[in-house]
Amino acid sequence: MIYLYVIEYYKENGYYPVKEFISGLRPKEQAKTLREIDLLQQFGLYLGYPHIKKLEGIYSKLWEIRIKQSTNNFRIFYFSYDQGKFILLHGIRKTSKKTHKSDLNISLKRMENYLKGCDHSES
C-alpha cells in the first residue's frame, strides 16, 4: 500500500506517549486505533469527520483522531507538521462528554516542545 502521509510518534526523553497508550489497550482496541492511524496515513486531513476533528479556540492547531470500539471512546491528539506529516502527541480513553483541558494542555505542550526541536522522534 502506498501512503501519501507520514505519521510520526512524539518522543520525550526516550518515551513515546502514544505508543505506550496504544500498547496499554486491549487487542481489539489496539487494532481499531491502529486502523484509524493507518487511515490518517492514507488520506490525511481529507479523512474527515467522524474519523478526525479539528479542535477550536486556543487548541486550534490540534486535531484529534476519534476512535470508537464497542462502548469505549479514545482520542489521539496530533498536529499537522510540514506538508503531509502528522505528529501524534497524546492519547486518552474518553470517559466524559468533554475532553479534560489537562489532556489538551499536555498535547499543546508537546507540540511546542516538538516545534522547538526537543528530542524529535521516529516515524
Description:
This protein has a single domain (6-115), classed as YaeB-like fold (2-Layer Sandwich), CATH 3.30.2310. The protein has three helices and five strands. The protein has helices at 17-23, 27-43, 101-115; strands at 6-9, 52-54, 63-69, 72-81, 85-94. The longest helix has 17 residues, at 27-43.
List the defining traits of the structure above.
123 residues; alpha+beta; globular; 5 strands; YaeB-like fold
Fold topology:
Layout: E1 6-9, H1 17-23, H2 27-43, E2 52-54, E3 63-69, E4 72-81, E5 85-94, H3 101-115
Parallel strand pairs: 1-5
Antiparallel strand pairs: 2-3, 3-4, 4-5
The whole-angstrom Rg is 13 Å
CATH topology call: YaeB-like fold
Mind telling me the CATH class? Alpha Beta
Class inferred from helices and paired strands:
alpha+beta
Instruction: Tell me the strand percentage band.
Output: 25-35%
Distance between the first and last residues' Cα: 17 Å
Number of helices: 3
Order of helices and strands: EHHEEEEH
* General form: globular
